[in-house]
User: Fold this.
Amino acid sequence: MITQKSKVKGAFSFYCLLLIAYCLLSSVVFAGEKTITLTDAWQSAISTYETLMLSQEDVYQSEKGIDKAISQILPTLTADANYTKYSESKKNLQPDNSTSYDIKLSQSLYSGGKEWSLWRQAKKKTESSKHSLEATREGIMLNVSQAYYLVLKAEKIVDIKEASLRRVKEQRRVATTRFQVGEVTKAIVLRAEADAAGAEAELANAKKDLLVAKDKLARLIVVSEEFKVVDPNIQAIPDANLDKFISLSLEKRQDYIQSKLDEEVADEGITYAWGNFLPSLKLEGVYSKREQDTKTAFFNDESMYAGITFTYPLFEGGLRKAEIDEAKSKKRQAEFKKMGKRKDIELEVREAFHNLEAFGSVIESNKRQVSFAEENYTMVFKQFTYGLSTNVDVIDANTILVSSQSNLINATYDFQMAILELKKKVGILLEDMMPTMK
Assistant:
């Protein structure tokens, strides 16, 4: 016979097993969820994103361009071999067969400076590619930051919508209770039901937006498992005025440095084109060995000679003139691009600076708005509970509260993004963030 004490012990043991199973299940769930900080996201994207890989290949190819340019300066050594079988019907006029071997050493002594100009262009293009790589890194960091803050925004919006749904359900409960005692009409209850359904739909959309935002971030940082993000530390605001930011951007912006290098490359293009008008001087040395069966008169089986070739172009149909004009046009293009880039950078820095100032003041206004909206909703809902306000007043108060909370969340994270964007426009984002990534 099972006693009451045995039943209690059995129930206690069963609850303990359930508790242990719940803890194990929770640990499995949370163990599979990865926590990613903003710094982690930067590091992951920089090490895996395809755009950066493409820029790295550009740097590699430009470095190979230097090797190609050096090959134009160094001597060349070539070997040729030839075997000839002659017709047997003409033996009285020619040998049976012959074999020849030639080794030629060729060294350009002077070619109007073209080979050195080509080498300098290759070096500048490599340097430009490296600056492009740094600019790509900065762009990836900014894109990842935008995606990261979108996830944070979406999470906060989901929290806001969930809180709104709880308030709407409480409003529905109060409306139903008052209807049951005859204080309000059925229309009030139906309106509350409709508001609850609308709040559920808004929450579903918010959760969908959160999933989309996380998918976009996962694409940038190449993460396949479930993850969560955490609020990063507040970014430090650069301590400088607008004029200082503008002058600093002209020193730090990778794309502006590239435009200056492009101008230098174009200038070297003119030097290269002028080289076509100058004479060239080449040194050649040849060793030749021949074998022939049967040997004929004046046959020389081995020879060695050296010579210097002097070449001066007299007329080529206007090609050199066209090339020099084209090179000068490219130089003017590079100057115009650099001038335009300078103006664009100044405009971008001004816009980013003013955005940062605006978001700073907007946040304070939104904080006051949220405080007033929360107090207003609490007061209006209490009045509705006691029949001193209408359901429309409660709905309006809840709408204002949700809107003000959403505005504050957006402004808070937009302010953080504005700091990063200003650093990006000035060209110091990578420089400032790299210490945190080590």
Notes: The chain is about 70% helix and 10% strand.
